[in-house]
Amino acid sequence: MGKKPKIAVTCSFEEKSGYHKIRRSYVEALANSGGVPYVLPHFSDSNLQAEEILRDIDGLVLSGGTDVDPKWFDQEPRYNLLEIVPYRDSLEIELAREARKTDIPILGICRGLQVINIAAGGEIYQD
User: Fold this and answer.
1) Which end of the chain, N or C, is less surrounded by CB atoms within 10 Å?
2) Torsion 5-34-37-106 (CA) sign
3) What is residue 7's predicted lDDT score, i.e. its pLDDT?
């Protein structure tokens, strides 16, 4: 039996409770597919760089969640946005850029797909 791939998966953060959270189905799908899931929290004032986080990772899943701050694609908020989590935006965009640069496979789920697009220089439609 070969080495199982290590797959990093991001999670959301609930400001009111102070808890990181992730859908169980994301982690179970990775494990059931033969991977070893590693849940990546986001945090303030970190000296960790995306390169360090991804050094020993074989794949990256950017999970779903709240809106990305429109400042990341040079727009002002136009509509009522869901909660914005600046540390999550910053970490995930940096992770997506580094993963692309180092050819680490990336899967984006809903918000995660938007993050991949923004990290590649795209923009998204606010609604």
Assistant:
1) N
2) positive
3) 98
Q: How distant, in Å, are the alpha carbons of 13, 37, 53, 92, 115 from that of 127?
A: 22, 32, 32, 21, 16
The residue type at 93: I
Using alpha carbons, list the distances in angstroms from residue 70 to 77, 78, 96: 6, 9, 17
What are 52-98's pLDDT values in tens digits?
999 999 999 999 998 999 999 998 888 777 778 888 999 999 999 99
Residue 19: strand, helix, or coil: strand
Distance CA 114, CA 96 (A): 11
Q: If you average pLDDT over residues 2-12, what whole number do you get?
A: 94
Q: How much is the mean pLDDT over the chain? A: 91
pTM of the model: 0.91
| Closest alpha carbon to 93 in 75, 110, 114 | 114
- Select from 102, 91, 93, 87 the least CA-distant residue to 73: 93
